[in-house]
Amino acid sequence: MSDPTAPPLPPSRPLRPEGLAGFEGRPAAVSGRARDPVNPPMIRHWCEAMGDRHPAYSGPDPVAPPTMLQAWIMGGLSGHGPRGGRADAYDRLLGLLDRAGYTAVVATDCEQEYLRPLRPGDELTFDAVIETVSPLKHTRLGAGHFVTTRTEIRTAGALVGTHRFRILKYAPRPKPGKAAPGPAADEPRPQRPRPVINRDNAGFWEGVAAGQLLIQRCAACAELRFPWLPGCGRCGSPEWTAVRASGAGRVFSYVVMHHPPFPAFDPPYAVGLVELAEGVRMISNLIGTEPGRVRIGMRAELEFLQVDAGLRLPVFRVLPDGADA
Q: Model confidence over 208-262: pLDDT tens digits?
């Protein structure tokens, strides 16, 4: 009998590309219906969690934040049931990958397009299609296939947005000392993923390299914002200046990561949403205490962690009760 706790081995043989390509263009969901109409309580909860105080999302005639697009059509912990419109082709594709040994899954990226604002009372329907299934790819997590679905979301028959979502179905690499041999003891430790640096956030990473945590301040209305964006979410102005944060904050929310294991990360570790003294919030690692001892409201102090020769990251040290932030 096989050991259910042993890590899965890589698939013994890859799937035929033409067999996977046959799923492209087939439906992943047909005539799905959101469980609830767009409603002000959910908008309020979202804005509180995101720290978004834009006046368009409150008041007597609010609109929903565009980035809530997927949230309205998610099934929740209990699932959609028959309202979700889940298509047989998508389940067959995932089952085929599971049986071939690609049993692990991780979301890799998503793209959204917004065509008009959503307002309370809008009832949403959606259809999804399997857009692409990649050939076998070799990643740091293991070998696997990228599966991309594209969802069209409508209200009263009119298209209001699209959501393209990509997952990796992969065979996890065995851990050292387990059922299959791991990397040699002298093999260099895998690097942590590199941040994506573009024209909108390059100034932030330049500040990190200089040992400064920089946040943006709108030049028109003085609104502080983080993460870095090309324009002000409050007044829309594209003009801004950079402000150096004090580094003091509190844990607003957190999660302790246990699974899935990623190369270069050693679970369990705590990831927190830290509310800075300046009022903005940012996500980062929490250090300085056991992950299980982190609590909401604990004070946190900025540090810069030199992860490797090419990567420096801002992290937050959780302070014990009575310590000065």
A: 999 999 999 999 999 999 999 999 988 999 999 999 999 999 999 999 998 777 7
Residues 187-219 have pLDDT tens digits of 677 888 899 899 999 999 999 999 999 999 999
Half-sphere exposure of 256 (CA within 13 A, CB side): 10
- Looking at the domain assignment, is residue 176 inside a domain? no
pTM (2 decimals)? 0.58
State whether 55 and 159 are in the same domain.
yes
Split into its structural domains, the chain has a count of: 2
Task: Locate 193 and state its tokens.
Answer: 């993923």
Note if the bond before 260 is cis, omega within 30 degrees.
Answer: yes
Fill in the DSSP letter of residue 81.
G
| Beta partners for residue 170, in sequence order | 104, 144
CATH number, domain containing residue 105: 3.10.129.10
Do 150 and 28 fall within a single domain? Answer: yes
Closest alpha carbon to 166 in 128, 109, 106: 109
Decide if 183 is inside a domain. no
CA 279 from chain center: how many Å? 22
